[in-house]
Amino acid sequence: MTDVNLADARENMIEQQLRTWEVLNDRVLDALEKLPREAFTPPQYANLAYADMQVPLGHGEVMLEPKVEGRLLQALDPQPNERVLEVGTGSGYLTCCLARLASHVTSVDIYPDFTARAEDSIRHAGIRNTRLEVGDAALGWDDGRRYDVIAVTGSLPQLHQGFHRSLAEGGRLFLILGQPPIMEAVLITRVGEDQWSSESLFDTTAPPLLGSPVTREFSL
Q1: How would residue 216 be classed by pLDDT, with cut points 50, 70 and 90?
Q2: DSSP assignment of 123-173
Q3: How crowded is the C-beta side of 216, counted as CA atoms within 13 Å?
Q4: Which residues make beta-bridge pairs with 172?
Q5: What does the domain layout of the chain look like in residue ranges?
Q6: Other beta carbons less than 10 A from residue 25's beta carbon
Q7: How many Å separate Cα 189 from the centre of its chain?
Q8: How far apart are CA 176 and CA 191, in angstroms?
Q9: How far apart are CA 86 and CA 95, in angstroms?
């Protein structure tokens, strides 16, 4: 695929995937439009960078569909003065999108090779307001900080509150809950020290976060 085709594909992603899936936030669309997704996609899948599909990354992990990334960003709505925690760095693409919208992003992945490749891609993209960590965050990531925004990019078969208390008051948490064939994306907001609200966003699927507990049921 040529550079011209990639530019056309990026525009088609915006107009035919994101806008038709009600991703209408101008800041989010601008971040997605300006960041070359193919620079984060494994080379053998570069021609699928803007396709409406999950792109394999290795280890059974994927880049989420562009429309899901767009809805995630729109629901979380990171602001320029806010700090973000991302669980599941993957390719680093969503990390960069979050970094373009927020003050700073801490991103955690359990696979060191993902982190190494993502660091290189993020550096080449000119993004400087990120910190990447290697670790197991399946049950939460307690680094002593509270975050305004938390994005968990792998699914949780069972809801737990490992991430809830890492939210600042007013902070937003994006999760994908359940098991195949249908999972539910939800937005959880910390409305008080011991109070959270939950909003169902859309149905989707995603590989489970490695190490997440598995049960047959989940509840909010």
Answers
A1: low
A2: HHTT--SEEEEES--TT---SS--EEEEEEEEEESS--STTGGGEEEEEEE
A3: 0
A4: 149, 189
A5: 53-204
A6: 18
A7: 17
A8: 20
A9: 7
From 111, 98, 85, 93, select the one nearest 13 (Cα to Cα): 93
Three-state SS for 160?
coil
- The phi, psi pair for 196, rounded to 5°, reads -135, 145
The structure tokens listed for 10 are 């990026």
Distance CA 69, CA 92 (A): 12
pLDDT tens digits, one per residue of 91-127: 999 999 999 999 999 999 999 999 999 999 999 999 9
Look up the CATH architecture of domain 53-204.
3-Layer(aba) Sandwich (3.40)
Task: Using alpha carbons, select from 109, 42, 33, 36 the residue that is nearest to residue 73.
Answer: 33
With cut-offs at 50, 70 and 90, classify the pLDDT of residue 2: very low
For the four alpha carbons of 12, 95, 25 and 71, in that order, the dihedral sign comes to positive
| Pairing mode, strands 147-156 and 167-177 | parallel
156-204 pLDDT, tens digit each = 999 999 999 999 999 999 999 999 998 999 999 999 999 999 999 999 9
